[in-house]
Amino acid sequence: MYLRLLAFVLFCQFTFAQQTLTGTVYAEKIPLGGAAVIIKGTNQGTITDASGIFSLSFSKIKNPKVMISYLGYKTFIQKIKQTDKDLGNIHLFPNDELEEVVVSGTLKPVSKLKSAVPVEVYSKRFFQSNPTPSIFEALEIVNGIRPQLNCNVCNTGDIHINGQEGSYTMILIDGLPIVSGLSTVYGLSGIPQSLIERVEIVKGPASTLYGSEAIGGVINLITKIPENAAKLIR
């Protein structure tokens, strides 16, 4: 009898020592999945699901603060009261102070301003305005880039940059070349747009860094980091 009473008291103390927070995180009016939600100064945290919703249970501490962060956005910090349960809709804003990073031919990340050649960087949000199944079709909205379908039977094509033939356009994935000069023919049609984090484009001769196959230009596809990708939900 005494053991049951003691277990009940300990259970009540543990239950009332916990606080649960819920909320929904948005970025530019779109639910943000994979955002980190932690209690500042502790190791108690969680991440938002594909709908941007999170539920976090944590031990009550003095003057707790919730911190929500995601790469490319300003960190959200707010004090939490003991009566707080639902934070409602939380909007994260782009962090314009972050310095753009490109991947050079030497496979080392360098600042966009310090790059030896001018690089145009297009984020995944740029391509969301024109949803397409593959990156081949998505590049149609970039100025100076013209994807051309050469065979309706085998569905192969190439990408022309500033009028140059597709064989003179080098395609990179995370800084590594794919399929040599035939990359625009066989490579891009099989790469889904949802896999891409951003696209870096060099227009014009870039042979000094990338070799003779980059006379027309270079298209560097940067894939998503697994930690920032949306999580699968059963």
Number of helices: 5
Structural class: mainly beta
Query: Which strand order do you get reading across the main beta sheet?
Result: 11-16-17-14-15
Q: Give the tally of structural domains.
A: 2
Give the fraction of residues assigned to helices. 10-25%
Distance between the termini: 42 Å
- The radius of gyration over CA amounts to 24 Å
The overall pLDDT, averaged over residues, is 76
Query: What is the highest CATH level, the class of the largest domain?
Result: Mainly Beta
Shape summary? elongated
Give a description of the structure.
It is a single chain. The protein folds into two domains: 2-92, Immunoglobulin-like (Sandwich), CATH 2.60.40.10; 101-228, Ferric Hydroxamate Uptake Protein, Chain A, domain 1, CATH 2.170.130. It is built from five helices and 17 strands. It is 13% helix and 37% strand. The model is unreliable at 8-16 (pLDDT under 50). The chain has 234 residues and is mostly beta strands. The protein has helices at 2-16, 124-127, 135-138, 183-186, 207-210, and strands at 18-27, 30-31, 36-39, 45-47, 53-59, 65-69, 76-79, 86-92, 101-103, 109-111, 120-123, 145-151, 156-161, 169-173, 176-177, 196-203, 217-223. Strands 11-16-17-14-15 form a five-stranded mixed beta sheet. Strands 1, 2, 5 and 8 form a four-stranded mixed beta sheet that branches. The protein has a four-stranded antiparallel beta sheet with strand order 4-3-6-7, with no helix packed on it.
